[in-house]
Amino acid sequence: MTKYSIKEYPQERELQKKVTLLQHFRNYLYADTNKIDIVNDKDSGFCYVKKWMKTKHAIMFRLSNKIVQVNFTDRT
């Protein structure tokens, strides 16, 4: 598996579209909260979102290290 950062990646059209989508998603999350906790997978050095779901009351994430994170809209 090849790893790239969001700032340094091959300038292929398909990959550029995915990075743009990730940047929009990241901006949406940062705009909605002042602090986002980052959880690292100790085995690989990074963690990623495998599945996510947004409801009226929360955004739920299942991370690659099997942690489930729930961010409620009322910040509880």
Query: What does the radius of gyration come to?
Result: 14 Å
Major pleated sheet:
3 strands, antiparallel
Structural class: alpha+beta
Report the β-strand fraction as a percent range.
Answer: 15-25%
Summarize the structure.
With 76 residues, the protein is an alpha+beta fold. Helix content is 26%, strand content 22%. Strands 1-2-3 form a three-stranded antiparallel beta sheet, with no helix packed on it.
Which properties best describe this structure?
3 strands; alpha+beta; three-stranded antiparallel sheet; single chain; 76 residues
Describe the model:
The protein is an alpha+beta fold and 76 residues long. 26% of the residues lie in helices and 22% in strands. The chain has a three-stranded antiparallel sheet, with no helix packed on it. The longest helix has 20 residues, at 13-32. The termini are far apart. The mean pLDDT is 79.
How are the SSEs placed, and which strands pair?
Elements: H1 13-32, E1 49-54, E2 58-63, E3 68-72
Antiparallel strand pairs: 1-2, 2-3
